Amino acid sequence: MKIHEYQAKRLFRENGLPAPEGSVAATAAEARDAVRELGGRAVLKAQVHAGGRGKGGGVRIVSSPEEAEREAAAMLGSRLVTPQTGPEGAPVRRLLVEETVDIERELYASAIVDGAAGCVTLVGSDAGGVDIEQVAAESPERIVSVPVPPAIGFQPCHGRRLAYGLGLGAELVRPFGALAGGMYDLFTRYDCSLVEINPLVVRSDGRLLALDAKVAFDDYALFRHPELAEFEDPEQDDPFEARAREQGLSYVKLDGEVGCIVNGAGLAMATMDVATEAGTAPANFLDVGGQADEAKIAEALKIVLSDPGVTKVLVNIFGGILRNDIVAGGILLGASDAPRAMPPMVVRMLGANAAEGVAMLRDSDLDVTVVEDLRGATEALKAG
Amino acid sequence: MSILVGKGTRLLVQGITGRQGSYHAARCREYGTDLVAGVTPGRGGQWFDGDVPVFDSVDEAVAETGANASLVFVPPPFAADAIIEAAEAGVPLIACITEGVPILDTVRMAPYVKSLGATLIGPNCPGVISPAEGCKAGIMPGDIHMPGRVGIVSRSGTLTYEAVGQLSALGIGQSTSVGIGGDPVSGVTYIDVLSAFEADDGTEAVVMIGEIGGTREQEAAEFIASDFSKPIASLIVGQSAPPGKRMGHAGAVITGTAARAEEKERALAAAGAAIIPSPAEIGSTMAALLGGNR
C-alpha cells in the first residue's frame, strides 16, 4: 500500500525523522494562507502516488501568497502525468505546502527488504536527488548497502558503516547514523515495504532534512496495522485494479489488446509472454487464484472487458482445485451481462475437468478457438 | 532417487482440519505419501481420514508418529508461528503453502528455523513432489507427473505444472519438482535445490523456471557456472511485464535493471544453461538437451 508524501512526513515526524515544515492544502485559499504563514516563499508539491512529479509540473516554487493561490488553483483538480503514471495521470486533490530549504548537498537513503540478503537492508548513496535506479545501473560504486540482521536489529555500527561508505564528514556520521536507525525503526514498526528519502539534504548549517519522503507498507501485514487504514487513497489506484482487488483478484492493467484470464501468477506472466511472442500484446496481468467460483470468474471477465483496448481474450487455465467447468461457467455467466459484445476468444484448458470446460464454451454461441497447448495459443493469436 | 521427499518421508500436516489442509492432506495420501499425523491446536484426539491422528502440538505429533516432514496450511497471521513450532519440534523439512505471510515474519523466522537445522520450502509455494518415489508434500495435481530423471525448480505454482505437463507429454519423467515460492524472501533458494539435484543420482538434468524481480536467478547462475555439472534448461517469465508493477507474486516486480528478464537470461546463458525461448518450449528444449538419453 502506497501513501502520500505528506502522510509519510507525518510518520517521519512522529518517529523522530527530520522533515521540512509545511502543511496540506485542499483548496487554493488554503494554499495561499499556508504560504503566507511560511513567509511568502514556498514549494507546492502535488500529492499523488507516483514519483517523477517534478518532470510533470507537480512541484512548483512560489514567491508570494497570490502566486501560490493561482498555481494551486491550476494544480488542484487536475491530473498529473509523470513518467510513472501512464498517459491518464493521477488526480491531484491535495498539495503539500513546504518551506524552501537551502541545500548544501543531496544524498539518498532508503530501507528495503533485500531478497538476496533475506533481511531489511539500509541503502545510501552520495548521489541524491536523481533517479536511484540510474545511479545503480551507471555507477554502482556510489551505492552502499548495509544488511541489518533481524536477530540483533539496527546497531550504531550499521549507521557508521553506511556513513563512512558514503564518505560523509566526521560531523555528519552521528546524525546520519541516528537517521538510519530511525528509518529502520519506522520500517519494522509499521511492516513497511519501503522507506525512502530522496533527496536527503544537508543544509548549509549542517543539519540533515528529508526533503522528500516515500513510505509503502507490506499489504500482507496490514491486518495488524488498523491504524494505517486512514492513509488509504483508492482514487490514486487504477479503477480496474481497485475493483479487481475488492474481488480478491490479482489484476494489473497493461496497454495491449489481448485480455488474459489465467490461474496462477507465474502462468499468468508466461501467458503474457505468449501473447507478446505472437506479435500481439497483453492487455493485462490477471491471476484468478485457486479458489475462484463462477461469480468471481464472471467478474474477472467483466473487468478484462471493461478495458476498451481489449479485442481478443486468451483463457489459459491449468485446472487443479480450480476446475475448468467452473471457469467455463463463469465465462458464460460473465459474457451474458458483459458491458459489451464478447470478442473472439482463444481457450486453452488443462487439468481438472478440462474436457467439460472446453465443451461448455464450444457449445455456446461465443467465438471460441480451442487450443491444446501454449504453442497452439501462439498460432491462434497470430492467425487473428 | 529424488531430493527432499521420498519413500522415507513421514508427513505431518499443520492445519489439517481446515478446508485447504484437509483437502490436500487427502490428495497427498492418495498419491502414495505416508501421511502420519495432523496438527491443529485444540483439535487433539480427533482422527483424519479414519486413521490419521490429529494432535494439539507438533511436539506431540513428532513424539507419537515420528513425523519427519510438515506441510503447513495455517492462515497467514499464524504461519510463521506454525513453522517455528515445527522447527523447534525437530521436524527437518517444512513446506509452507500459505500465501500472504508478512515479509518481516519470514525475515525473522527463516534464519531461525535454519539455525535449528530445518529446511524450509516457501512460504507461498506449491510444495514438493518426488514422482520417482511416489511421494507428494504439496498442492500440485499428482496425476500430471510421471516418474523419471528430470528435476524441476521454480518460484511458481501453475507454471511448474505447465512445465511438468509439457515434459510428461513428451514422455520425459521427473525425479523431484520443487516450488521455492513467489515471495521476495523464502526458505530454500534455487542454489539449495540445485546443489541437492547435483548430488542426486536419480536426477540427470534440471529445468529451472525463474521470473522477473530480485536477483535470485543471477545468484543461481553463478552457482551453475561454478558448481553444477548436469544439463540445465532455464525459462524466465515476465518478459512483457512493465517496470514498477507487481505481477501477482510479491517478488515479481521490476525495480531495477537486474530484475529484468533479459538480464537473468544473459546471466544464465553465460553460466551454460540452455535458455528456453518461450513458455511453450519447455518440453521441447529439455528433449533436445537430453538427446537420446530419455
Protein architecture, described:
The complex is a heterodimer of chains A (384) and B (294). Chain A is of the alpha+beta class. Chain A has 12 helices and 18 strands. In chain A, helix 11 links the parallel strand 17 and strand 18. In chain A, helix 2 packs antiparallel against helix 3, helix 5 crosses helix 6 and helix 8 packs parallel to helix 12. The two termini of chain A are 39 Å apart. With 294 residues, chain B is α/β, with parallel strands linked by helices. In chain B, strands 3-4-2-1-5-6-7 form a 7-stranded mixed beta sheet, sandwiched between helices. In chain B, helix 3 packs parallel to helix 4, helix 6 packs parallel to helix 7 and helix 7 runs parallel beside helix 8. At the A-B interface, helix 4, helix 8 and helix 12 of A face helix 4 and helix 5 of B.
Total number of strands of chain A: 18
- What is the H/E string of chain A? HEHEEHEEEEEHEHHEEEHEEHEHEHEHEH
**Number of DSSP E strands of chain B:** 14
Low-confidence stretches of chain B: none
Q: What's the quaternary structure here?
A: heterodimer
Radius of gyration of chain A: 25 Å
How far is it from the N-terminal to the C-terminal residue of chain B, by CA? 16 Å
The helix-and-strand class of chain B reads: alpha/beta
Helix segment count of chain A?
12
Rounded to the nearest angstrom, the distance between the terminal CA atoms of chain A is: 39 Å
Summarize the structure.
The complex is a heterodimer of chains A (384) and B (294). With 384 residues, chain A is an alpha+beta fold. Chain A has helices at 5-14, 28-37, 65-75, 132-138, 156-165, 170-189, 239-246, 265-277, 294-306, 324-336, 354-362, 374-382; strands at 22-25, 42-46, 59-62, 79-80, 90-91, 95-99, 103-114, 119-125, 143-147, 192-203, 208-210, 214-217, 250-253, 258-262, 284-287, 312-319, 345-351, 368-370.
